[in-house]
Amino acid sequence: MFVRHLAVTDFRSWPTAEVGFEPGASVLVGPNGQGKTNLVEALEYAATLGSHRVATDAALVRAGAARAVVRAAVVSAGRELLVELEINPGRANRARLNRAALPRAREVLGVLRSVLFAPEDVALVRGDPAERRRFLDELLVLRTPRYAAVRADYERVLKQRGALLKTAGLARRAGGSGDLRTLDVWDGHLARHGAELLAGRLGLVRALAPYVSAAYEEVAGLDPTPGSASVEIGYASSLSHPPAGGDVVDVIDEVPALEVLEAALLAELARVRPHEVERGVTLVGPHRDDLALSLGARPARGYASHGECWSYALALRLASYELLSAEGSEPVLILDDVFAELDASRRGRLGALAAKAEQVLVTAAVAEDVPAELQGARYDVCDGEVRRVR
To answer: How far apart are CA 232 and CA 315, in angstroms?
Structure first.
């Protein structure tokens, strides 16, 4: 898979921009603030309907414009598809595929698959659980696009159930009884959608784990022998007694059946209901879970050095790339302004690994930061223009 052409209108800093790409390595070079990241962010949006930099779409629309448009021509298995996205802050976004309008924007998911690594990704190791949940869910959707609807259904139920709990809690604190007659119904919805999302995440962690270990060894240059630092990933559940046993569900041979997960969620919701009503929030479910990252015998968060955090974050992204490649068409690999942050050793290892991709897009402020293995086509990005110079 590769992107042949990208065009944007009123996206971030760009009133308009177009750039043609080829398979292999393409490097966008220019001073900071010239819009290099904005271009690869547009490609990421075409693949995921999200951004690695902001949580909402409003910041993606150029100041003073009413909407932004992203168009990407994607070649996969010898067939070219045109993805068009219209970003409308405060209103429903629109999508077209080969000029035909789609009922929902999320129906373009899966046409373009990309894996992006950026300096912000160090938060996958050092940051809050929300960062790691987002990583899991975005990869889950890239791997199986139908999970976009599962996530949307779960988030909708979570919001409505939370509103009911908050209202009931306020009423009880004011001396009333609080109307909880519909809470059992919302418990059922939450458990059903939550079980499906949880099963997807567990299956993903199970599949991803060996790729993460291998990628970390390659990036960090470890000798994979007994006694060397190793990495493992697991799933930290908000259930007090997860079906697989323990507070952290390790990589397992079989993901529990949906009905088992649903029953476990229902039982835990019943157990913590008094606390939920008191606090006005939902305390159990995938929105409270975490991806457990360990380095040796210790959790990576709080114990990993700066270099180890970078290597771990890189390993998570490269493992995502390898997993998606093994299960289908090879995704586009995007490296956004990362080489200046790496030491020479990690820079060289990453360059050698990335060079294997069918298409890799690199942004850099200084061309000399990019390893020789990735010195392919070069584009200068400066003064509102993108110009190919090699």
So the answer is: 11
High-pLDDT (> 90) share of the chain, %: 63
* Of the candidates 387, 371, 330, 372, the residue with the CA atom closest to the CA atom of residue 3: 330
- Average pLDDT of span 330-339: 92
For helices 129-143 and 306-327, the axis angle rounded to 10 degrees is: 20
Q: Has residue 235 got a pLDDT over 80?
A: yes
For residue 204, give both structure tokens.
Answer: 């993903």
Q: Give the residue carrying structure tokens 């080829």.
A: 22
In this predicted structure, what is the pLDDT of residue 250?
Answer: 53
Choosing among 1.20.1050.90, 1.10.3660.10, 2.40.160.20, 1.10.10.10, the CATH entry for 147-292 is: 1.20.1050.90
Sign of the torsion angle spanned by Cα atoms 129, 135, 136, 137: positive
Phi, psi of 250 (to 5 degrees): -70, 170
Q: What's the pLDDT score for residue 218?
A: 86
Contact between 373 and 352 (Cβ < 8 Å): yes
**CATH assignment of 2-113+329-388?**
3.40.50.300
Domain coordinates of the chain in residue numbers? 2-113+329-388, 147-292
pTM for the structure as a whole? 0.90
Model confidence band, residue 229 (pLDDT cutoffs 50, 70, 90): low
Residue-level pLDDT at 240: 66
**DSSP assignment string, 116-144:** EE-GGGGHHHHS-HHHHHHHHHHHHHHH-
* 3-state per-residue secondary structure call for 318-365: HHHHHHHHHHCCCCEEEEECCHHHCCHHHHHHHHHHHCCCCEEEEEEC
* DSSP annotation string for 62-122: PTT-S-EEEEEEEEETTEEEEEEEEE-TTS--EEEETTEE-SSGGGGTTSS-EEEE-GGGG
pLDDT of 373 = 87
> Which residue matches tokens 């959790």?
299
pLDDT of 219 higher than 50: yes
Confidence of residue 378 (pLDDT cuts 50, 70, 90): very high
The sign of the torsion formed by the CA atoms of 24, 30, 31, 35 equals negative
Could you tell me the strand order of the sheet in which 94-97 lies? Answer: 14-20, 2-11, 68-76, 79-87, 94-97, 100-101
| Angstrom distance (rounded) from CA 71 to CA 9 | 9
10 Å CB burial of residue 119 (0-12, 13-18, 19+) is: middle
